[in-house]
Amino acid sequence: xxxxxxxxxxxNILLLAIDSLLxxxxxxxxxxxxxxxxxxxxxxxxxxxEKNYSPHIxxxxxxxxxxxxxxxxxTEVVALRHQGPLPKxxxxxxxxxxxxxxxxxxxxxxxxxxxxxxxxxxxxxxWGSLAEGRSPKAQNLNDVAQPxxxxxxxxxKPWFIMLRHMDPHSPYLPPVPFDRMFYHGNETDPNNRSMDxxxxxxxxxxxxxxxxxxxxxxxDYVIAQYDGAVAYMDACIARxxxxxxxxxxxxxxxxxxxxxxxxxxxxxECWFDHHGMYDVTLHVPLIIRYPxxxxxxxxxxxxxxxxxxVPTLMELAGIKTNTKFxxxxxxxxxxxxxxxxxxxxxxxxxTWMRKHGWRTPQWKLMVALEPDFxxxxxxxxxxxxxxxxxxxxxxxxxxxxxxxxxTRMNKWIKKRERETGIKNPMHHQGDWHGHKGVxxxxxSKQAYETMHIGDVGAAKKLQADxxxxxxxxxxxxxxxxxxxxxGKETEHQLITIIGRGHGGTRAMSHTLSQSGVYMGxxxxxxxxxxxxxxxxxxxxxxxxxxKHKGGLQWDFSKLHTMKIDPRFTKLIESYLSSVLTSPAQxxxxxxPETTLVFxxxxxxxxxxxxxxxxxxxxxxxxxxxxxDDLSDFGIAYDKTNDVRLRRAISWKYQVEIVRATPKxxxxxxxxxxxxxxxxxxxxxxxxEFLGFGLVxxxxxxxxxxxxxxxxxxxxxxxxxxxxxxxxxxxxxxGKKK
Length: 737
Fold this sequence. Notes:
31% of the residues lie in helices and 14% in strands. By secondary structure, it is of the alpha/beta class. It folds into 2 domains: 12-409, Alkaline Phosphatase, subunit A (3-Layer(aba) Sandwich); 493-725, Rossmann fold (3-Layer(aba) Sandwich). The chain has an 8-stranded mixed β-sheet with strand order 5-4-6-1-7-8-2-9, with helices on both faces. It has a 5-stranded mixed β-sheet with strand order 3-10-11-12-13. A 4-stranded parallel β-sheet has the order 19-14-20-21. Helix 16 runs antiparallel to helix 17 (566-575).
């Protein structure tokens, strides 16, 4: 066969996109078993990136990021079963290469949104089952890919070919001799019980039975099958390298090895799959060989992500494009211009669970957006320095770390929402699990009973999104740990706290939270539901309908009769989304600004339980709060430069708007001072009001009556009436009225 020289002088691009490849199970990444000798050689001839991550799990969003240079906000793809194509504004690597004069071919990847734009699509048999025998997936790929490489190399144009390898993806069925390369034992030993919890896991066990041997009892046998599949694939990939060398084009081809995500083997009870945002899933290999521009034998310790691949290829191939990327070329790290890209970043998963989180070099935060089928806690926090395998959840011991990471995550999310003009796609996934009309799971029990994969055919169709999985038969076997335990199905109770900022409402929020009331996904140290921006804007929307009559008088009457502004409803529903969609039996929220919109909150949630929280205004105005200046929330008043006076006016306004609003049927007033100084009595009254028991939290008696030692002004005459009505000591008289 005669091969023509690539006349463009641009390099070819070979992307080995390997599904479910654990970087830590590659010998070049330090694995004790020699699983990848041929890819190790490629790494020695090129550059290996030690900390490359797939932040958006699983396959569909991962490849969407890898093949576009965009993050999840750029691609708008976060779910395995993503519906519809990529946005037209997003350009894929294939489209860019075609525009630059490349021939393009995709092998084994025609169904994914990010596979758009190739000239040619070729499929191969990349699955298998025990009934079919051992599965030579990588050689099946070679059988169609190598003739295509020969064909492309006859052309005068450069080429880009993507080979999607499936060997590390279950079923793990490597051919002989790789099936026993890393195992010499009895996989059905009756005394080995390590597979018991795997077979007990109802959502996956039927699928496992189609490719694991009957009676398999040893987890190490299954892990050895995975390693054998990786080693077999590595040997087959060597044939591709030999082909390129024989054609004389190896050094003029950018060769990239990248994984879409890792694999959870016997880790974290996720059982031989790739869900859970643990590092075994997020950490993926990246190796690049291109001798003219990429140095040999180099290892980069800085952080990189999928979104950095396409910009890197653009630089290496010399392709000029106006396409927008969220990532950047890793060659900046290779050349030593920067030591690392982002070392902390947003992570998501939407496969079998819907969660998001924030990863830093030291900490990993994971937050469930709905109950998961593993009954895991809603919030997980891991110290990656002390616990790199992420075995010990330390969220309860480190609430301040959870709060700080949550703040960083939400700040980044808001930034990306502003930049892209879209809401976080993780919050708008509907029937992401493939069960039409179900929506977000309300309990872990529901998720456990619904999610099911029965056979290899079903597994394949999950990715192709041609058929939904069937609900599993009912079972009485449930896990018993975590925050999403199954329980009696009862009517949900919604609770909120109405009280001014710096009024001590955090004491009530923390009491509710520690008593089992779900108070939202993200709380700050004051127990406020975050992020607050939608609530703030809702305050401004409602304020337009409040009439300032001058002085300290306002007319709230219109709020009780007019139709609620639809913008307000949308903002409140957005702000409370984590609460309103939660399956928790008891749930609620707290943020002082709720008081500013109390008239419409009552109308939206007439059946909620309202705790009217009051504190002596002379103590409330000693500290600053966002609501000190009412004009920041669109509320008209006679402005003043006197800070204490502004706070006192704000206190009075909030008392007046509450008083002017018809009270809901479930309403109780609690004084901060009684809660602190007479906690047992106050909690007993709250228990009766709410219908369940509350825990006692530590309180500080010294927080009561601070105004008595305050040297500033705090005795504003217009507060006198309210002091009397709530039973506080009047100005300077030292006795109760």
